[in-house]
Specification:
Length: 199
């Protein structure tokens, strides 16, 4: 049982119970509580979100290290081990799992799936699987994936900057619009109405 999801779902059920009341409120509250629990249980925790963000932040650098190790002649499992030790953190641990799986003879699809299920990590997994089945150089594929990931991060940062600019201007508009109406338009309207009503 997920304690965090249960602690958040119980108040949802109680609100349904209190709003409707009686036996229908008990039924509605129970249904709302169960549905809220199921939905909240599927949501990632803060620690999982932080870990995913850190993995995605370290992934472009890790793909460059993997590509460099592969170009130097290292086997994929050795390259994953060296990169995992160099990168550290959650991505380093995942790369160590990839290395162990490759060493024990797992397929590329199974071994590289230890990187995770994020969009960025799926690109690395697809590159590794394609290179195993098609014979393409994994180092070249990883270099392209790393370049794409860096470009995506730049585009996302640019979009966040633009969004922040809009959000910063919004409170100013909310403050200045009423001030403009009160200081600029209301005196003009009062003067015009005063002139029309008192000829």
């Amino acid at each position: 049982m997920n304690i965090r999801a249960a602690a958040q779902a119980v108040p949802c059920g109680l609100i349904g119970l209190l709003l409707i009341g009686g036996w229908p409120g008990v039924v509605v509250g129970t249904v709302v509580g169960v549905l809220a629990y199921r939905w909240l249980r599927r949501q990632p925790s803060r620690a999982e979100v932080r870990e995913r963000r850190r993995v995605e932040a370290d992934l472009p650098f890790a793909t460059d290290l993997l590509a460099a190790a592969l170009r130097a002649g290292a086997a994929p499992d050795v390259a994953a081990t060296c990169t995992g030790r160099a990168v550290g953190g959650p991505l380093g641990l995942r790369l160590q799992q990839v290395s162990r799986s490759l060493r024990f003879g797992a397929s590329a699809d199974e071994a590289w799936s230890y990187l995770g299920d994020g969009e960025a990590t799926r690109r690395v997994v697809r590159a590794a699987v394609r290179s195993q089945h098609s014979g393409a150089a994994l180092a070249g594929s990883l270099t392209r994936v790393g370049d794409d990931l860096r470009a995506d991060r730049l585009i996302a940062a640019d979009a966040d900057g633009r969004r922040a600019g809009v959000l910063i201007v919004l409170p100013l508009g909310v403050c200045f619009l009423p001030a403009f109406i009160l200081a600029g338009l209301v005196p003009v309207i009062v003067a015009v109405l005063g002139g029309v009503l008192n000829p």
